[in-house]
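[Target chain]
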Amino acid sequence: MNEFQSQLGELCERVKPKIYVETGFMTGESAKAVCEAMDKNSLGAAYSIEPFVDPTFKHPRLTVLHGYSYDKMTELFKQTGAWDLFLHDSNHDVGCMTFELELAWYYVRPG
């Protein structure tokens, strides 16, 4: 786990998100840090949207949605309602980043 993931876990311990959504899974280290924080808080569900990687990290709080953010973000929002925390870590092309961040702006709980 690197410094970013450690700080992400600490953030989750403090803000206690009920719904955490990330795009991009790769090694699962961010999801692992978040799930460990949620375990400490006894609260929360984590969702990762990933088109390519079959995750080796598994956790009862984590649901991995196989597919692209273009297809899965709205579908997930309809299922979960407002999100408390969103992390973009998928395709870093300007079009994908803009799409994900603009959409997430509407899906993240106010405040």
Summary: The helical segments are 3-15, 29-41, 69-80, 94-107.
